[in-house]
Amino acid sequence: MAISPKQALASVGYYMVGISKLPGWDKPIKLSSNESALGMSPMAIEAAQQTMPDSHLYPEVDTETLAEVIAERYQLDPARMAFGPGSDEILQRVVNTFSGPGEELVHSKNAYMQFPIYAKLAGATPVAVEDRDFHYDVDNLLAAVNENTRIVLIANPDNPSGTHLSAQQVRRLHAGLADNVLLIIDAAYEEFANSPDYESGTRLVEEFDNVVVTRTFSKVYGMAGLRLGWCYGPEWVIDILTKIGPSFPVNTASFAAGIAAVRDVDHVDTVLAHNQKWIAEMSARFTAFGLRVYPSQTNFILVEFPHECGKTADEVNTCLNRNGIIPRQFAVEDFNNKLRFTVGQDWEMEKMIEVLGEFLKS
Question: How far apart are CA 181 and CA 202, in angstroms?
Answer without folding.
Answer: 17
